[in-house]
Amino acid sequence: MVLTWLMIFGAMYWVVVTFVPGMGTPKIRLDAQGNLDLRADRSGNYLVPGSINGVPVTFLVDTGASTVSVSSEMAKQMGLVGCMPTNSSTANGAVSHCTSAARTVTFGNFEALNVQVGVLPNLGSHALLGMNVLRAMNLSQKDGRLVISKSGD
Q1: Which of the pair, 1 or 87, is modelled with greater confidence?
Q2: What is the CATH architecture of 23-150?
């Protein structure tokens, strides 16, 4: 009897994470033209694996962030040095941080060179993929999907 219920709940879980947008693990796909096709996670966020200076990170695509941003701990791992102090306004109010430059930022099949990176003391576990990189791309969002493609410029 217990095994039957476990099988029923297991099947229901599989149906939900497979067919309800944003409920499963975010899927990343590159199409034949090299476009990056992301599905939103349960929170409606778009996550994409990448790297900064060769150090693997998970980026949160953040069109509200001016720059690519990482935590202080991540910055140390990435060798981001020469950080210039500054202040910025965020959704959570004013924050003191510093900016540095990364040699490379990669995600999907895209690479950006010499990228300004904000180093925020308490950012969290994901790096933010900000507009200083995204503005060079075409972004299209519809029905829980975000397609990032190379700009035609």
Answers
A1: 1
A2: Beta Barrel (2.40)
